[in-house]
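Work Package 3 committed the consortium to producing structural models of liganded targets before the mid-term review. Because experimental data for this complex are still outstanding, the team generated a predictive model from sequence and the ligand definition alone, so that downstream docking and mutagenesis planning could proceed in parallel. The input record is reproduced below exactly as it was submitted to the modelling pipeline, together with the SMILES string for nicotinamide-adenine-dinucleotide.
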Amino acid sequence: MSGRTVVVTGAESGIGAACAAAFGRAGDRVAVLYHSDTAGAEASAAAVRTGGGEAITIQADVDGEASVDAAFAQVEAQWGPADVLVNSAGLNMTGVTVRDMKLDQWRRLIDTDLTGAFLTSRRFLTGRGDKNGDAAILHISSIHAYAVRAGGADYCAAKGGLTNLVETLAIEEAARGIRINAIEPGMILTPMNARAQADATYRATLEHNIPMQRAGNPEEVADLAVFLASDRARYITGARIVIDGGLSLMQAIGA
Ligand SMILES: NC(=O)c1ccc[n+]([C@@H]2O[C@H](COP(=O)([O-])OP(=O)(O)OC[C@H]3O[C@@H](n4cnc5c(N)ncnc54)[C@H](O)[C@@H]3O)[C@@H](O)[C@H]2O)c1
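The resulting structure, written out as tokens with the ligand in place, is given here.
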């Protein structure tokens, strides 16, 4: 599998950046969609090219319909309809409980982590028109789609909603050969987990709860994304694949 057109959102950082580089190593054309970090996007594009792929960078707000439409139009003008979409753009929970949460915060997170997935998926699909077969959408969800945390109602609701979006899309698009799956990471060392990277004691406390006794790396998530987008995963659709070193199995601690 090489020479595909792959759109990665949130590709200037963390899991998205690792995915962009991994698809580059697979020999694909990667559209590096980024929010505001131009230098990060250029670094991701450079990694794609170093790996043997082609890259373009495009600024896009995933929660903006016109912005998403314009980004895909630019990809299609250059390379034609996209074959793979990796939706990695997202905001993290803030620890604010519902009784203290402002409506603006709720909306911002739902708009980014859930509506963004709807907008990018829809534009990916309409861009393909009646073209059938060999296409895949991957949404980077979270174990918090089902393992909730106090202070994360906005994030957990967005990722829980993403599960239903993925499953609905999967049955809508299966007959066209377009597969839609969710990747559910646990603790991955990215800027979203900046404190764990800066504070060894804090990180050790968190890693103690992970059966494999360590956090994951973005490259490990990217390896899964490349597999799920490949022909080797041709019968997998509507699935939620957990990648968390066993963390989500520990919910009954203290029971
Ligand atoms: N790191 C983890 O432990 C972890 C665990 C589970 C799930 N995830 C999910 O993985 C995905 C990637 O997160 P990450 O860990 O790489 O964090 P990250 O902060 O490095 O990357 C998130 C990216 O999303 C982009 N983004 C935010 N708002 C955007 C918007 N409105 N439009 C476009 N882009 C926007 C940011 O610019 C950033 O590049 C997220 O969806 C996150 O919820 C991460």
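Reviewers should note the following from the model. Residues 103-128 form the longest helix (26 residues). These observations will guide the Year 2 experiments.
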